[in-house]
């Protein structure tokens, strides 16, 4: 048995943050019904990296496994009536409409909680449900720029550098996932549903609990160095260094030990807690001159033998083939009806008694419309009429 068996989620979200949060619930066994327009959710038509797939692009595939698709026109009275019927027995309703849209559609918390007081309603937004930015587009890169984090790393005067992941989307997804689980726990204790609000700006800001506290409590300015130091609040050496055949990372090494390993007297007189901050540029430059002379494998072996923290800089091909990744079973493979055998990131949480599993791949548009409608008591004749009228789409 999976941990969220018999929990029904209505996923009315689009793009990444909402669908990713709902997918995590599905991975733990929830019955996730993806309620999408009859033309298909936006992400079906926006292929990340140009990876279009066969019938489902890879971007959509990656965010919508373990879901069933109900394709329906929510702007029609008949379509809205179907959704309200589903709400009666649902456990979680998740949406990331722009503020005000849920009210216009008549699927806001006040409306749905009146139908089902036990409902956990997760509302996701870019900047918050109200306030001066409430209608601004909540897009990952825009929020990364606002977060302040881009100016915590890299060289002074160099352009700010975005993260190599859709970082804000992912953090927001996990925040919503956490909120949904906490609200479920509260409901188990009290029987009460509730509204759970998550926004991208707060999610990426509170993720920086330590960094921002150093600024607000410790009064330490966020000051980049001339060299591309990896974080303004960590002493040198700390960054990415070129080697003879690639790149590697080096973090907070003992300067005395580093000097011994590199056979360089420059480091001998330095004090880590003083010079590690005040001479960041000089330390970085000196380390750089050494590391470029030998290959990455040499330096990793040398530094690890001296208990100096270091690591490789991977591309995706290296990551997927890493021995620890293979040992952990980090990636999973399954057969998809239209996309064939696919290999994708798996489950970050392991449960000893209730393991996550992939029971279905990302659905085709409206693949499960007929099944879902039958489950809420719609007759075959009613279902046929809804499909014929275009209110509901059933994949053929």
UniProtKB/TrEMBL annotation:
Tell me the domain of life: Bacteria
Lipid metabolism among keywords: no
Mind telling me which Pfam families this protein's record contains?
A: CoA_transf_3
Keywords, A to Z?
A: Transferase
Output the InterPro entries linked to this UniProt entry: CoA-transferase_III_domain, CoA-Trfase_fam_III, CoA-Trfase_III_dom3_sf, CoA-Trfase_III_dom_1_sf
Alphabetically, the GO molecular function entries are: transferase activity
Q: What is this protein called?
A: CoA transferase
Task: State the species of origin.
Answer: Sphingomonas bisphenolicum
């Amino acid at each position: 048995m999976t941990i969220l068996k018999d929990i029904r989620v209505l996923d009315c979200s689009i793009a990444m943050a909402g669908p990713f949060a709902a997918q995590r619930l599905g991975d733990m066994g929830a019955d996730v019904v993806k309620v999408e327009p009859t033309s298909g959710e936006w992400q079906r038509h926006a292929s990340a990296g140009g990876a279009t797939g066969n019938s489902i692009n890879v971007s959509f595939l990656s965010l919508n496994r373990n879901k069933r698709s109900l394709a329906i026109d929510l702007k029609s009275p008949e379509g809205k009536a179907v959704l309200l019927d589903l709400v009666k027995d649902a456990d979680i309703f998740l949406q990331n409409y722009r503020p005000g849209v849920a009210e216009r559609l008549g699927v806001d918390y006040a409306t749905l909680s009146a139908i089902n007081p036990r409902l956990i309603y997760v509302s996701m937004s870019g900047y918050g449900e109200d306030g001066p930015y409430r209608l601004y587009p909540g897009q990952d890169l825009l929020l990364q720029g606002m977060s302040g984090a881009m100016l915590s790393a890299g060289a002074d005067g160099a352009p700010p550098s975005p993260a190599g992941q859709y970082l804000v989307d992912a953090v927001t997804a996990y925040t919503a996932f956490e909120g949904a689980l906490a609200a479920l726990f509260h409901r188990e204790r009290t029987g009460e549903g509730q509204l759970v609000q998550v926004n991208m700006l707060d999610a990426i800001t509170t993720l920086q609990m330590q960094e921002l506290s150093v600024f607000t409590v410790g009064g330490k300015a966020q000051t980049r160095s001339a060299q591309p130091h990896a974080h303004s609040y960590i002493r040198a050496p700390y960054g990415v260094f070129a080697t003879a055949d690639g790149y590697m990372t080096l973090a907070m090494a003992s300067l005395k030990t580093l000097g011994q390993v590199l056979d360089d007297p420059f480091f001998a007189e330095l004090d880590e807690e003083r010079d590690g901050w005040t001479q960041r540029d000089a330390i970085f430059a000196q380390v750089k001159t050494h590391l470029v002379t030998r290959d990455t494998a040499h330096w990793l072996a040398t530094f690890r033998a001296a208990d100096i923290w270091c690591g490789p800089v991977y591309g995706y091909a290296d990551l997927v083939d890493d021995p620890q990744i293979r040992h952990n079973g980090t990636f999973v493979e399954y057969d998809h009806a239209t996309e064939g055998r696919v290999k994708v990131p798996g489950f970050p949480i392991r449960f000893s008694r209730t393991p996550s599993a992939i029971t279905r791949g990302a659905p085709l548009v409206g693949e499960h419309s007929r099944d879902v409608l039958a489950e809420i008591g719609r007759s075959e004749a009613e279902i046929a009429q809804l499909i014929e009228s275009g209110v509901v789409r059933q994949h053929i």
